[in-house]
Design goal:
The structure holds 3 protein chains of 3 kinds.
Chain A: H1 12-15, H2 23-32, E1 37-41, H3 45-53, E2 76-80, H4 88-97, E3 103-107, H5 108-113, E4 134-136, H6 143-158, H7 162-168
Chain B: H1 13-23, E1 28-33, E2 45-51, E3 54-61, H2 69-73, H3 82-86, H4 93-108, H5 114-142, H6 146-167, E4 176-177, E5 180-181, H7 189-211, H8 215-221, H9 229-234, H10 240-244, H11 251-254, H12 275-298, H13 318-323, H14 325-337, E6 341-352, E7 355-366, E8 371-375, H15 377-383, H16 385-388, H17 394-404, H18 408-412
Antiparallel strand pairs in B: 1-2, 2-3, 4-5, 6-7, 7-8
Chain C: H1 2-13, E1 18-19, E2 27-29, H2 35-46, E3 50-58, E4 67-74, E5 81-87, E6 95-97, H3 106-117, E7 120-122, E8 152-153, H4 157-163, E9 166-167, E10 177-178, E11 191-192
Parallel strand pairs in C: 2-5, 6-7
Antiparallel strand pairs in C: 1-2, 3-4, 4-5, 8-9, 10-11
The chains are: A alpha/beta, B alpha+beta, C alpha+beta.
The structure holds iron/sulfur cluster.
Residues 43-45, 81-82, 108-110, 115-116, 139-140 of chain A line the site of iron/sulfur cluster.
């Protein structure tokens, strides 16, 4: 349960039932290990997203198995697939509905840049409409790559000034 | 499918719905379901009008995954378009590649060697199994049986390992090329496929044991979403959805291509055209696919895996390109200008997991198609929704959507 | 053989029927006014009971007749196809008769053709766009529409106001590259067929 910036260790013999830590460390520790994804499965990449959730790759090892289709209950939106101009407003609306703090993973070439679909109907990268934290390359990325992205995101989350942000509200 | 219905009294969902509507004061509701909804398997949206829980009108809204494939096809050579076919029905790319390659070969009037045909049959059938497994997993998950999803995904991973060994990718394979396949099967691959088949059948039995006579499953699917024979034909349904309604039509048997006429297999049919029948048809189709795979591997012919005489269509092998001037030029021409095609029109349909995937190619000669229409089976399969949802409960919709087993990639293109 | 028999039979109801060039199935050009009748005869008397595909071809901006509607019918008895094509009369406001009375599946396919080509189907019960959003102004599969697309508003004004996102032409400078066979050999450099954004044409602002 140790995250890298947990400064003060816990020794029950010395301190009894008390833990002393920084608020940031605790909040970030909680957040990193229960990133609930909002699976924005749009196209082919969604299949690999499902595969990461299934038994072989088992995303629950990283605390992110609770795929919630309700944006209110999720922390990280995984945009898996081609975002078309028709879909983009809906995607943005879902993003707006997610509670703060929220993160976005752009999974696959299409979500990152439009990928192989250079055409009139495709949004050329989901970062034009929502801010993206982690990009994953690949068409489709292997589930391992998605897991890697998740770990990268956890690293990012664990260094945030969460307590300050909370107070800023 | 002969199913024993004696023990179970099939629930009369329409009747129940009507009774429910009489008992309670109901309200007229308009619900927009999707485009991001767990049971719409992708980006389908349904605009529903409800009376209480009873569906009175269903208006599907598509196009959330319209990526412009047909326009893209007009702007690139035939060979360059192969990877885009992977992403039509992204549950069975191997079958799409083969269908597209066969359509263009028909245009070029090119006969591919027997070994290539047999490889295509094996890969298409494995793709069918993998697509049906995913369809089944998602279908059962939607009506609340998560275990099956986990089981089918484990099997799919085994298939992915096989595909990866063969093609280098898990599912965007681009394996069948025009005039052949990318590479021959690796040593021992067919044995591993046989082992997979061996292990897969008992597992399918396990899944059947979980579902086929399961009371909850039966209640959720039997007599729900009935599509009559006439409707199935009139709406242009194809694949398991058509056969679930009892129409005996399978292009593999009726208009054989790629050497399907050599194999022995049965075409399972449903009786009532309800969600349960469509499930049962898919289950049996997987068994028949295993049968075809076994036969094809048993008589796998030798010889080349691509049409050697098609020098202006199939890019030469890498080792030859690097050693022979002629092949180098050929390769250059094929990659820059595309394969040399005659002018004319062809239409080709192949029996894919979801139904008949058709390509209508209008060529004016040269390496770029003038117009390519892709007929995605899911497009027609979904058009029946406006009819089949009527009068049912809103909770039946997830069962109906699951049983229609569509893919938005080929529906919207 | 089949094609000739079929043609003779169809000509009874439509004398102007002509053969259409085809590399595979029997194909006929028929006057657009007789289209519904020909299809009905095919369906009722010759067993072509499945409309597998309905689409259109744009013969080019300068061509006249510019638009051709094409139908593929399949027979679930004999397992063969026929192709029926008909030229639309008007080049700027093309219309065609609807087949929704004969095949329920025609509904969506005609909506799709309307969406992508702008062909109006007369008598269609519900002619709306199906793939692009309702107030999209163009018809993407027309030949004068570039692959990259045109700048446009996105479908949701509220989101457009909040984010400032617009429909932008896609960048074509990176390909796909094709060498045009028509030009002189030394000039046959592979270029993107769609030239809405390359070295000559400036990139639209993004
Ligand atoms: S990146 Fe590739 S696999 Fe993923 S959605 Fe795009 S085309 Fe499909």
């Amino acid at each position: 349960m140790v995250s890298s910036n947990q400064d003060i260790g816990y020794n029950s013999k010395v301190e009894g039932g008390v833990i002393v830590s920084k608020a940031d460390a605790v909040i970030n520790w909680i957040r990193t290990h229960s990133l609930w994804p909002m699976p924005m499965g749009l196209a082919c990449c969604a299949i690999e997203l499902m595969a990461s959730g299934a038994s072989r790759f088992d995303i629950s090892r990283f605390g992110a198995e609770v795929m919630r289709f309700s944006p209110r209950q999720s922390d990280v939106m995984i945009v898996a697939g081609t975002v078309t101009y028709k879909m983009a407003p809906a995607l943005r609306r879902i993003y707006d509905q997610m509670a703060d703090p929220k993160w976005v993973i752009a999974m696959g070439a299409c979500a990152s840049t439009g990928g192989m679909y250079r055409s009139y109907a495709t949004l050329q990268g989901v970062d034009r409409i929502v801010p993206v934290d982690v990009y994953v390359s690949g068409c489709p990325p292997r589930p391992e790559a998605l897991l890697d992205a998740l770990i990268k995101l956890q690293d990012k989350v664990s260094t945030e000034n969460s307590a300050k942000n909370l107070l800023k509200g | 499918m002969p199913t024993e219905t004696t023990e179970y009294n099939a629930p009369d969902s329409g009747g129940k719905a009507a009774a429910a509507a009489q008992e309670f004061e109901t309200e007229h509701l308009e619900v927009s379901m999707g485009p991001s909804h767990p049971s719409t398997h992708g980006v389908l949206r349904l605009n529903l009008e409800l009376d209480g829980e009873v569906v009175q009108k269903c208006d599907p809204v598509l196009g959330y995954l319209h990526r412009g494939d047909e326009k893209i096809a007009e702007n690139m050579t035939y060979n360059q378009f192969v990877p885009y076919t992977d992403r039509l029905d992204y549950l069975a790319p191997l079958a799409n590649n083969a269908a597209y390659a066969m359509a263009v070969e028909k245009l070029a009037n090119l006969e591919v060697p027997e070994r290539c045909q047999a490889i295509r049959v094996v890969t298409s059938e494995l793709a069918r199994i993998s697509a049906h497994l995913l369809g089944l997993g998602a279908y059962t998950m939607d009506v609340g049986a998560l275990t099956v999803f986990m089981i089918t995904f484990t099997e799919r991973e085994k298939l992915y390992t096989l595909f990866e060994e063969l093609t280098g990718a898990r599912f965007t394979t681009s394996y069948s090329r025009i005039g052949g396949v990318t590479r021959d099967m690796p040593d021992g691959w067919t044995d591993r496929v046989m082992v997979f088949c061996e292990e897969f059948l008992p597992l399918l039995d396990d899944v059947e044991a979980l579902l086929t006579r399961n009371r909850i499953w039966f209640d959720r699917t039997a007599d729900i979403g009935i599509i009559s024979k006439e409707d199935a034909i009139s709406y242009g349904l194809t694949g398991p959805n058509l056969r679930g309604s009892g129409v005996d039509l399978d292009l593999r048997r009726d208009a054989p291509y790629s050497g399907y006429e050599q194999y022995d297999f049965e075409v399972p049919l449903g009786e009532n055209g309800d969600c349960y029948d469509r499930y049962a048809v898919r289950m049996e189709e997987m068994r028949q696919s295993v049968r075809i795979v076994r036969q094809a591997i048993a008589k796998m012919p030798g010889g080349p895996f691509y049409a050697e005489e098609a020098k202006k269509i199939y890019a030469p092998r890498k080792d030859k390109i690097l050693t022979s001037m002629e092949e180098l030029i050929q390769n250059f021409m094929i990659t820059t200008e595309g394969p040399d095609m005659p002018a004319g029109e062809v239409y080709f349909e192949a029996e894919n997991p979801k139904g008949a995937l058709g390509f209508y190619i209008v060529s004016k000669g040269g390496g770029v198609p003038y117009r390519m229409k892709i007929r995605g089976p899911s497009f027609n399969n979904l058009s029946v929704l406006e009819k089949v949802c009527l009068g049912g409960m809103i909770s039946d919709i997830s069962a109906i959507l699951g049983s229609l087993d569509f893919v938005m990639g080929e529906c919207d293109r | 053989m089949i094609a000739q028999d079929l043609k003779a039979a169809l000509q009874e109801s439509c004398p102007d029927l002509e053969d259409r060039d085809s590399l595979d199935w029997p194909a006929f050009n028929c006057p657009i006014s007789a289209l519904v009748d020909v299809v009905r005869v095919l369906k009722e008397d010759h067993g072509y009971d499945v409309l597998t595909d309905a689409t259109a071809i744009d013969n080019g901006v300068a061509a006249s007749p510019r638009f051709t509607v094409v139908y593929h019918l399949f027979s679930s008895q004999s397992h063969t196809y026929t192709r029926i094509a008909a030229n639309c009369d008007d080049d700027s406001e093309p219309t065609a008769p609807t087949l929704t009375d004969l095949f329920k599946g025609a509904n969506w396919m005609e909506r799709e053709t309307f969406d992508l080509f702008g062909i109006r189907y007369e008598g269609h019960p519900d002619l709306r766009r199906i793939l692009m959003w309702d107030d999209y102004p163009h018809h993407p599969l027309r030949k004068d529409f570039p692959l990259a697309g045109f700048e446009n508003e996105i479908s949701d004004p509220e989101i457009a106001a909040n984010t400032g996102v617009k429909v932008k032409p896609a960048p074509m400078a990176g390909g796909p590259f094709v060498a045009q066979q028509s030009c002189f050999e030394s000039k046959r450099e592979p270029v993107a067929k769609d030239e809405s954004w390359n070295e000559q044409n400036e990139k639209p602002d993004s």
